Amino acid sequence: MSHVPDDLKYTKEHEWIADTQIAQRVRMGITDFAQSALGDIVYVQLPNVGEKVTAGKVCGEVESTKSVSEIYAPVSGTIAAINDSLVGAPETLNSDPYGQGWLCEIVITEHSADLLSAQQYIEITA
């Protein structure tokens, strides 16, 4: 069973978001379930700061020794920050997907109605 923190919101595509200390700004990443299914992550393509993203649309990519997986924006908005450290250490997504392995921060322009609670996410991954 993968780790699923209660204080986050999730997508069916295995991304998570967390509130930040800044209003209307969330941090996103991929879930423990996703990193486990991918295996050893060797490359991450992140969106650019200032790029507009749309909920449910591709905004990046994760490559592992097994496969390539697209990253989907969990909300609509503008990329405010990216985790540059992942460029040189993509394996951080495997070791700490909810901490140092965050992908980017988004200033929300529109919330998604499709976000799941931890319990709902656990049910779809069981």
From TrEMBL:
What InterPro entries does this protein's entry cite? 2-oxoA_DH_lipoyl-BS (IPR003016), Biotin_lipoyl (IPR000089), GCV_H (IPR002930), GCV_H/Fam206 (IPR033753), GCV_H_sub (IPR017453), Single_hybrid_motif (IPR011053)
Annotated protein name in UniProt = Unannotated protein
Organism encoding this protein:
freshwater metagenome
The record ties this protein, via PANTHER family, to:
GLYCINE CLEAVAGE SYSTEM H PROTEIN, GLYCINE CLEAVAGE SYSTEM H PROTEIN-RELATED
**GO process annotations (BP):** glycine decarboxylation via glycine cleavage system; protein lipoylation
- Cite the CDD domains for this sequence: GCS_H (cd06848)
Where the record annotates domain Lipoyl-binding, the positions are 25-107
A GO CC annotation recorded here is: cytosol
Family, according to the entry, reads as follows: Belongs to the GcvH family.
User: What keywords were assigned to this record?
Assistant: Lipoyl
